[in-house]
Amino acid sequence: MSSAVSPLAPTEVPDMPVIAGVRLATAAAGIRYKGRTDVLLAIMDKGTNAAGVFTQSKCPSAPVEWCRAQLKGAGSSKGLARALVVNSGNANAFTGKTGRQATTLTASIAAKAVGCKPNEVFLASTGVIGEPLDATKFDGVLGTLAESAAPADWMSAARAIMTTDTFPKVATATVKLGKAKVTINGMAKGAGMIAPDMATMLSFVFTDAPLSSAVLQSLLKSGVQDTFNALTIDSDTSTSDTLLAFATGTAAANGAPKITRASDPRLKAFTKAFRAVLADLAEQVARDGEGARKLVEVIVEGATTSISARRIAMSIANSPLVKTAIAGEDANWGRVVMAVGKAGEPANRDKLSISFNGIRVAKSGARDPSYNEAEVSEAMKAPKIQIKVSLGLGKGRDRVLTCDLTKEYVAINGDYRS
Amino acid sequence: MSSAVSPLAPTEVPDMPVIAGVRLATAAAGIRYKGRTDVLLAIMDKGTNAAGVFTQSKCPSAPVEWCRAQLKGAGSSKGLARALVVNSGNANAFTGKTGRQATTLTASIAAKAVGCKPNEVFLASTGVIGEPLDATKFDGVLGTLAESAAPADWMSAARAIMTTDTFPKVATATVKLGKAKVTINGMAKGAGMIAPDMATMLSFVFTDAPLSSAVLQSLLKSGVQDTFNALTIDSDTSTSDTLLAFATGTAAANGAPKITRASDPRLKAFTKAFRAVLADLAEQVARDGEGARKLVEVIVEGATTSISARRIAMSIANSPLVKTAIAGEDANWGRVVMAVGKAGEPANRDKLSISFNGIRVAKSGARDPSYNEAEVSEAMKAPKIQIKVSLGLGKGRDRVLTCDLTKEYVAINGDYRS
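YS: structure for the whole thing
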């Protein structure tokens, strides 16, 4: 395991404000790790609404299925949340019937500790796959956590959900909703997608804004499109990826209006701030990609459509040859051409232009006449590399974040047994 | 650059027989490499028919476009071949108008040297992308080669087309066509897909069987499906991948029947042998994957269709996390589940079974009750690893070859500048 903090870690950590109606507590339950916290309990006040987006994997983990069921749930409990239990060290994925039993047991232990219904409990697990999760370990622990839960310690919460992450990831925004001030706090974990000690992407966002579950779901759905869904570390998709949002509605006491329609014009500033929190967290995940030494931003413009631009950008961002070239500080635009070509999307070789960190290296399907290797090589030493591809076909544009592919990635994911 | 021969290289090299009507010669033209051969000229007798399959890249190289045009070509020259010129060191890809001019010039120099029409000349280039290819370097060289060309030296030919390959790749088969003995000789190069010194997949197959161009094309198209098209090193697709086949028809003199329909029943044994040559070459390419230490065979069965099985097998074979686990000699079936899940194809987690080298590790969506870590760990030390996934849904089955992902791959593709 790599223990050094990623060189791309943010240099400043935001001061995380309290969100009324949210209390947090962490503990070391010894699920897999020794000497570190591995369980997070978040308790939300009555009236908290929830929403979520999940992995597209056809083999989702038991907690993902649990959360989906609670959000779909019938009657008055639908989309209501009183507790969130997150554990690291064991993903409770591919554990068969035992896995489903573990989620049911965890939710009932949490419900008892918090004083709510089991279907008001949300669950997320990250860690090894295929190892049965002993949910009885939560017995006692969650009761103690419920007693000690306090509004303040967001950094400890972010730390408890880490696996191969090298730094905790938090983001915050404060914005006006109507005339009242509302707050959005988020935390995330990432690193690879799945790893020996597992590196699923988990993220949890909390706000005191009085938003209905449907509004929150709409915000999430549109918010992830250009943030978490425009992010790739290694093209591998976890069975457990989970992004949950909770709105306590406590800001209503300060005069914040209740929002029940996603099209409500009063939601404009909030939507922007919510998206910014997701974007901040997603970028931190890219900055903590396993073995990453460079943050890579891929911009594709001039595609026939924005969907086509996204596919081409993902093809570039997922190419091992592009990623190893970046690791080698080489502006290897030939590999970018290769990745454009293999995407299967409309592209005309003779209209392609490519630039690295603003320096154009290829133009109209050939090396740029003004290409200066020394200048480009210098630019490639920067910790953040922007690859911009102009296809010259239409107005489709998109942006994707990734990181480079280093020997350290292979070491983290291949050497762990030795 | 890695110079040691891959530990997965075949221990025996076949004795390559002469094919009447094919003469070969190699030279060091100094296109990029120093002190090694980098040009191959193959001269075929009049009446030789050609066929080819090429990269699906939307940004193909100039030689790929040249070959496609010759195979489509109008009138009496269509599908006729008298010469093949292959160079390593420069791919003549993404070189704009200059690239097209270079192919035209190379073909006309070769035509003059061999005494044929330029549209009877086939071209393939492999090497750096975006660097203009100075085709005038072929002037003189090809004339000398035409004079010295001789039927015998297939190993030298295979060596001249290498880039990051660590061993030359040849295969041969002798089979009856009618009552006559006919021969099939093939050579290939591979390694990664594109690399600093380039690692496009090129392959050339020659036979003395009297086959029409259409028959040869049909053999190629069906032959690649489960061989070269079922092979992935790093998911990256070269702009220059080329597989050409040439039939001199000289075996007609020994009584081999002329075959003009792909459905001709006399072609049965030949078809099988032709496919075996392609399979042999494709496996050698996997065995020489950049940095490879393990040959990996992925078998997916029980899928809803064979197309679905191929997609799931490719998702597993291309997963960096599966490939690094194999490099680490870990039977990490959780990552296999992940790769099945991300393929987007029908899969039922609770019906999945997975085995490594015949040892079942997961069954019905959970760890196999008889799982024995020591036994599996021992099996993972083998140089060839078979991952078998049973989906339990239908009769779709497929097989894909790949290799592991090692630090050496990253070094080959990322460290070349330092």
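YS: worth flagging: The domain at 295-414 of chain A is CATH 3.10.20.340 (Ubiquitin-like (UB roll)).
IM: good catch. Also Chain A has two domains: 22-287, 295-414.
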